[in-house]
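Following the same procedure, sequence and fold were stored together, as reproduced here.

>
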Amino acid sequence: MLGIDHNAKTYTIMDKETLKAMGDMMGGGGGGGGGEGGDNAAGIEAMLQEALKDVPAEERAEIEKMMRQQMGAAAPKNQSQAPKIPATEYRKTKERGEQHGYDTVKYEEVQDGVVLSEMWVTDWDEVAGGEDTREAFKAMAVFWQEAFGNIAMMAGENPIEVFEKINGFPVVDRELADGKTTSETVLKSAEEADIDSTIFQPPAGYTREKMGME
């Protein structure tokens, strides 16, 4: 994962090795002593902020969101103290309709009987480049599982695996609270194009900023 700060002309790289080092430490591999769960949580938060401190602001929020979803609750040193992570169910409903030009079916994300979000999902082959996108998401899911090492098993659901559970792409994804929409993400269009691989490299002359876990 490449983060670029054009103002400072620097870039950061969050690769598998960096994430795995964080995951191993958060999973209980760093240091002895009998600290309380709150101390452990504070330590994890400090490590997360240290790892993200050099990430450009425009990328930081999204990266932090993904990392927090993957990490779940802070993992205590004693597994018997680990909080139980509620199971998440993705329920396919009978509601169908057209959303932004795509034929969709409605799914609900349910946890402890509460609907957290609703997604209007279309088949992969209805989206331009859909099958390639599906394979990319599968590879990302494996990457996150491997990268976070020990903590991946304690963090609950891998957020990227949801695409396999709903068996399609969400054209509309609404986050809910008390039945009201708090945020909405929409796919308005998609197209296939050849992209020069150099676009994924930092610009010439930019300096790499090392992250806190490196």
In short: Residues 88-186 form one domain. The chain has two domains: 2-83+195-208, 88-186. The longest strand covers residues 88-99. Confidence is low (pLDDT under 50) at residues 30-37, 73-79.
